[in-house]
Amino acid sequence: MKISLVYISLSGNTASFIKRLSTFLQERHENVEIEQVDIKDMVKEERPFYAMSQPFVAFLPTYLEGGNGLDNGDVEILTNDLGDFIAFEENYKRCFGIVGSGNRNFNNQYCLTAKQYAERFGFPVLDTFELRGLNEDVKRIGLKIEELYGM
């Protein structure tokens, strides 16, 4: 079985979470293949976007421009390439949902970008975690992914 995790990581927090999540899933299922699609690398290497051939889960950190997340400060910056990939060739139709990450110190802005993607594309926010995520976040989200893939 193949599990696809599509993400963008700017500071390394989301990449660290994806690595630990992949290890968690592979330790529990020896026959599982984890496809990690790093959008930042695709853009940096100028590789073209492509249509996903199977369902996937998206992971998105929150980077917003200023404000408080309520009446201002909800403009996404730096992570737009993930949205472009999800929109490309209707990839959003194969997306189970999105997992957001952020810093709880930002109150209403915490994982706001993931909520905006869910509204924009019509899929759910599956879960959230703070910064690099804790081991219990990895386990909780890993179990949700297993359920989504019918494992």
From TrEMBL:
InterPro entries: Flavodoxin/NO_synth, Flavoprotein-like_sf, RNR_NrdI
Domain Flavodoxin-like: 3-151
Molecular function via GO: FMN binding; oxidoreductase activity, acting on NAD(P)H
Name this protein carries in UniProt: Putative NrdI-like protein
Species of the source: Streptococcus periodonticum
